[in-house]
Each structure stands twice: as C-alpha cells, then as structure tokens.
Amino acid sequence: MMTLMKGFVLLLTCFAIVLFGVILDAQAETCSTSSEMDAATKAALQRTDAGRYAPREVSGLSPARLARHMTHSGKGWQVNDAVRSRVSTMRHNLVDPLPEGMPVVQIGERDWELGKNYPAEIALGACVRETLRALLPILRGKMSAGRKTQAAQRLVEIAKNNWTAKRERLAKDMLAVAGAKPLDPRWLMMTIADALPKDAVVVEEGLTSTFSLQSFLRFRDAQSFYGLASGGIGFAMAGAVGISVALPNRPVVAIVGDGSAMYSIQALWTAANLKRPITYVICDNRSYRILKERLVSMRGTEKFVGMDLRDPEIDFVALSQSMGVPARRISDAQDVVPALRASIASGVPNLLDISVADGFGG
C-alpha cells in the first residue's frame, strides 16, 4: 500500500512538473516583463493622431511601415484607449469589454492569439516590448500640440483610479479589520503581499479567501504568479511542487484554501521528499465557502449540507508533519509576518495553517 501511495504521489508530481514546465517554456518566449509592459502601455496612451486604415493582418511589419499604415486614410482614427482586462473565474457579464466599433491594433507574440477574441484591423506578430519601443517615437512625432495636452490630461485622470491608487485606498480600509479574529482574508492577502521577497513566486488557489490578492500583489515578472484559469480546483498543492522544480532558485508561496488543499494534500510528501523551498499557506475557514456562496446566490438559501469541515476539524499541522513538512497554526495577526518570513528563509517546505473568517459569522 505504501509503495502504491508513493507511486501515485510521484506520478501526480511528474504531471505537475510537465504541465508547468510547458507553461514556463511558453512564457519564456515572451520578451516583455510586467513593469516594462506597463511603461510601454502608459506611453501608448499618449498616441492619439493615428489615421484609420483598411482591415488587414500584418506580420513582421517594421515600425515605420506600421506607422504609415496607421496614418493612411487621414480620417483621424485615434489610439487613445488602453484596455487592461482580467478574466474572472466563473463570472459572466453581458456587457462587452470593448466599446462597439472600436478599431483594434493587436501586437502579440503568439500567432494563434492574433484576432482570436476580437477582429483586428492590424494584427502584428512581433515582440511587444521592442515593437512599442520602436513605434512610440514615430507616433509621438505625429501628434499635434493639442493632442499631447489632451493625452497628458487623460493620464492625470487615469492615475487617480489606477491599480496603485486603488491599492492605497483598499490598504487604508484594511486598518479597520486588522485586529479581527478569525483573521479577515482581505487583510491577510495584503499582509502576505507586503511581506513577500521580490523573487517569490505565488501559487494561488484560495478561491474566496484570495479574492482580494491581486488587488495587493505586485506582478514583478512573467513567472511570479500562477492561479486558476477555470472553475476546477485542486491543482495548487502539487502544482507548487512542479513550479518549484521548474524555478529551482526562487521561493514559492502557495496560498491554498483548506478545501482545495484536501484535493491533493499528498503533495506535501513530495515537497518534503524533494526538499523544495515551498511555503504552503492554508487559508483555513473550516468550510467550502465557495459552495456556500454559490448556493446563496443561485438558490437563495443558507441550508448548507456537507459544506463544513468542523466535525471534526482537519488538523493541518499534524497532517503536514506526518508527511515530513514542518507546520504551525496561526490565529493572531502579529504572528503572520514573522512566521511567513521564517518559513521562506528556511529554504525547505513549511506549512502555515492560518485561521480566517468563513464569511458566514464564524
């Protein structure tokens, strides 16, 4: 039985390693970091005098030729809107994210992505960073003084409600719940994000507990964050091992809900066996809160059957230690940062079982 168990664990880990190795290989093809892309996108906001042109797909087009196409018809088409969108798991909105009739210029590094979601008037297969770096000076030279003033005014307005401004406002709101017991998940996400070293890789599968994580977590590079891309759960415990193997010189922090963790809890043994520098943060709300919230929103009832993990409660500390991973239980706010930093600094797998509010008064 033990041999069978070890074989299953290793098979699961190998699957995770292959899966995330493929993901990392695909991401390695890109030549744009998040910080560089943000700077380029901000600069692109200022380009407003490009002309409208006929629908076409362009691959390998030089920046100078692209700029000529963008001023071809002289009808004053403007590249003055930047859309930053994020697909939210299990959510659907009937409102289209792009205004009707907005022309799209798409620059991408994967040919199969070009024009996939929206038809592009120009679809350019090229390195995004280098293309914008070469294209922006050309477009700047085509701007009138009036357009430059308008662009500067828009950037001032955008700055009032960009990610950084929203983060600062939300951080102030967290002061009101900083001492709550059990811990408020939003405060916990802010605290974790602030305590992480710059080279940390975050693996997220906390569902309701990590809903606010991306409002606090800075994406420093293309390999710093991995999360769910669909409604399925259960990948993060084993996935963190695969990611750590693929990125051997970076600490991994896996933030996982207690329910999600139980889908592949045996991955702790593999993390210990491979001695990977992974800190597992279990957001322990003693329930399947995501199911409760779906039941309330879709059925209008709070009659929860089989959705609590309280009788008996799962002892994640004992469970982790039984598989060779040191662990501790945390319920006080002042213990979170020291424990997290010590776990990361240890260079070996650790587990922090942190008690958070369940969203239904417990």
Structure description:
It is built from 14 helices and 9 strands. It has helices at 2-28, 34-44, 63-70, 128-141, 145-159, 163-174, 185-195, 213-216, 236-246, 258-261, 267-274, 289-299, 316-322, 336-346, and strands at 58-59, 105-108, 122-125, 201-205, 225-226, 252-257, 278-284, 327-330, 350-355. The chain has 362 residues and is of the alpha/beta class. Helix 1 crosses helix 9 (236-246), helix 2 (34-44) packs parallel to helix 4 (128-141) and helix 7 crosses helix 14 (336-346). It is globular. The chain has a 6-stranded parallel sheet with strand order 5-4-6-7-9-8, sandwiched between helices. It has a 3-stranded parallel sheet with strand order 1-3-2, with no helix packed on it. The chain folds into 2 domains: 2-30 and 164-355, 3-Layer(aba) Sandwich (Rossmann fold); 34-159, no CATH class.
